[in-house]
Amino acid sequence: LDEKLRKADKGQEAAEEAQSAAERRSAALSEELDAARESLAAAWSDESEARRLAEAAAEARATAEREAAALRVACEVLRNSLDEEAAAVKRAGQQVAACSTRMQTLRDASSATF
Hints:
The protein is an all-alpha fold. The protein has one helix at 2-113.
């Protein structure tokens, strides 16, 4: 009977040790699970931030493309306006030259008359 009691005590001690080891392992696994959850949340946050930044970059690019197109149009309008101004200045220069030639002709005729 004593032998059976000793074996039962040893069995109970072994069971208690196994239960204690299982509890420690459960606690370690719980900590690992918590760390994995935190890591997943951080990764999700990083992915969300990357997606948000990519969307912002796409919007900025689209805005820059629209502004560049508007600037190209404005430059073309300005170029056309400058071409028109240059043509007007050229015409005015030709008119001044023609006037100068006429005035010289009138002077020559006037001095020949007197």
